[in-house]
């Protein structure tokens, strides 16, 4: 698998500035110092300023988190390169007041040096306000031996640090308190990332595939650094198990960084972070598996944050972060779990801050209380003139469809996408099952038609399922109206009137009208002649209309995208229309 190397841009050299200009257009509450590439919010009240930054390419981090309740400024370098000291000094000067500032950056050598030097220069200049630097090191993939000198890398857990620290600053706390909570959170963070491959930096030559098609890499950083292990592509459940075990395991002296007790008392915040190119569909599955894993291990999940927080450009990968909250049994903790969660849940408005519930996740599959709607008035009854024949007619129609599956499938393989026969067969079998289980009894026509509508909707699916369900829902309403008008049984007149009303309902939701080479051709032919000709003759009209579709140009449905001349030459009827003919043929007396 080669990394994606196509990008949408004007010029690789201007990409960072172009992106920051777009961010300012999106968020008028922020300002942009283009010369030094600083995104910031001008101070409106005394507070400890929060700054971050680093190389670009991690969007929305860090500039996307500048805003109320988060960062006061973000200093942006080139892609994967630290900003220089002058840039950082400019950022500090724009937002730092008497209460000082805390710079929260990830532990990378360039960032540590440039942000640290800028802080020292600010202090030496005599400018108001102290400035301090906190390096976040939350990567559990880096062993203690590997990080003896440089320490561990900073990853997505950094976002939680400045979110919580900013909330304390908003509450009026001083620099010591804000720095203390940031240090505390940092000490209880564990993150690990995984990638299907490396990312591609705009303006560079495409690289060769880094991994085999069947491989992933565990322990990857966010600057294209190699991971620690290559694994055969596992299921999400297996991968999440491996990743969360590495964060929570306390038996590995090289990588046990977070003081989990693993005794049922641990409480965490889970952060699922998209590294750039994982679909939302996949992220949802990852989030579900991670939450389930923690719950099975008796680790209480107090909050779940899932989305795109810190990327590695277009890396097809994700990271998992756990913030271990203070335990009630933990002696000497300066904070409670409730306090940390209060800071995390505090309001924030910045483009990069994803929606969070502020609540604990539920348990998937737990019993949900059913809300029973109170019935208003007496349920109306409408009985068939012959209960046994009513059920027999439905059974015949269903069996006719099941027997017709091969011919319908063959027709649809030529005229559509090949699933018509199986779709109609599935609906027919589901209706027969409803009869066998006593769900469809033939005692109250209104209820029975409702059962058929629900059944075909659930078991047929696709366009056919929707059309049939709408028709039967309309039929049920028309029959209810007939009962309310005083009818006690379903006479032929009641049936024909209800069918006409149901067709009118169906026409609200489809533009297909005869002749269109769709199921409405035989359906309308059958319904419009039912009141005057009766069931048998109307069925013949339906057959004629269905056969006529062999000669028609498709105006709706999948058949409209097929070569029309080829369809005419092969004399293939529309499978949906043919299915209607098989149904009405069954209703009138077809025997399997």
Automatic annotation (TrEMBL):
Keyword set, alphabetical order: ATP-binding, Glycerol metabolism, Kinase, Nucleotide-binding, Transferase
SMART domains: Dak2 (SM01120)
Superkingdom assignment: Eukaryota
DhaL domain location: 388-589
Catalytic reaction equation(s): dihydroxyacetone + ATP = dihydroxyacetone phosphate + ADP + H(+); D-glyceraldehyde + ATP = D-glyceraldehyde 3-phosphate + ADP + H(+)
CC per GO annotation: cytosol
Entries under InterPro entries matching the protein: DhaK_ATP (IPR012734), DhaK_dom (IPR004006), DhaL_dom (IPR004007), DhaL_dom_sf (IPR036117), Dihydroxyacetone_Kinase (IPR050861)
Function comment: Catalyzes both the phosphorylation of dihydroxyacetone and of glyceraldehyde.
Stated name of the protein: Dihydroxyacetone kinase
Species for this entry: Kwoniella dejecticola CBS 10117
